[in-house]
Amino acid sequence: MVPVPRELGMNNKRVEYIAHEPVMANEVLELLENIDDGTFIDATYGDGSHFELIRAKFPKLNLFGIDRDNDSVLSANKNNTVFKYNFSDLDSFVQEKRLKEIKCIFFDFGMSTHQIMNEDRGFSFQNNADLDMRMDQKDSLSAKDFINSASIEEIILILREYGEENHAYKIGNMIVESRPYRKTSELSESIARAVPVKNPIAKKKSVRRCFQAIRIHINNELTHIHHGLHKSIDIIDSGGMIITISYHSLEDRIVKKIFKESSVDCICPTEIPECVCNQQPKILLGRPSKIKPSKAEITRNRKSKSAILRYAVKL
């Protein structure tokens, strides 16, 4: 793959790429104090907020950014080296760019402010936009395609599994009965009608969970996290660090599971009396095992409230 020229593919109707305050920036910078000079990969470049801070504090690091969202690549600071790749293709990126001495791979799994606020993208239920939600707009499946064609069973399953929504059955039935949909407002109104409570705050939370579930599904987010983390562990140099910031339990469970399985010397089922897996630990878990933002940061930046930072060091 090649970097996308900024003058090509620009959407003249889109808002400028909006920067946001990087979550747990101080904690990330403190971890990097122990990193040797070499290559740093920001696997979720977004608006470049973490990237810019790291470049300013650690000028000897050779920084590269990747993102699956073309808007992010096109809007990147011209002084930053950013390419359009999904982080699940980290191995291809490293091989094609012939990167060496990889000392840190960083993941911030949160949505960018731009993606949420840009009405053309359809990520937010608070905007009346086309039902899209694709992080990579070259992907074939949009939220509108999924909602208008999926079976009721599949919709209910997605809302339960990815949204952890208690009213998935009622919402799924309402969605199918009210099809077709074109706009985010139409879908959010159907979800709210289906939720059997009068409290508007509770209804809004259900709408948010359902939009999250649909977004996770059409972007195959959890599978990409799984592949990206495993490839990072294989790619990074000995002594290098993998840092992740998750924002909901589904993401964090994957990180926790992969880090744990890659840090132990046996993954055999407990009922087997003798180890037969020949597992060799690949990483050392960071301590503490998870780091939460400070109260001051949560007060200043509400987006950070649910954030969990985990890190591991390659053996």
Write the layout of secondary structure elements.
Layout: H1 25-32, E1 39-42, H2 49-57, E2 62-67, H3 70-74, E3 82-84, H4 90-97, E4 102-108, H5 113-117, H6 143-149, H7 152-163, H8 168-177, H9 184-194, H10 200-219, H11 221-235, E5 241-246, H12 249-261, E6 283-285, H13 295-300, E7 308-314
Parallel strand pairs: 1-2, 1-4, 2-3, 4-5
Antiparallel strand pairs: 5-7, 6-7
Helix pairs in contact: 7-8, 7-10, 8-9, 9-10, 11-12
Description:
The protein is of the alpha/beta class. The protein folds into two domains: 183 residues, Vaccinia Virus protein VP39 (Rossmann fold), CATH 3.40.50; 101 residues, DNA polymerase, domain 1. Helix content is 41%, strand content 11%. It has 13 helices and seven strands. Strands 3-2-1-4-5-7-6 form a seven-stranded mixed β-sheet, sandwiched between helices. α8 packs across α9 and α9 packs across α10. The longest helix has 20 residues. The two termini are 30 Å apart. The N terminus is likely disordered.
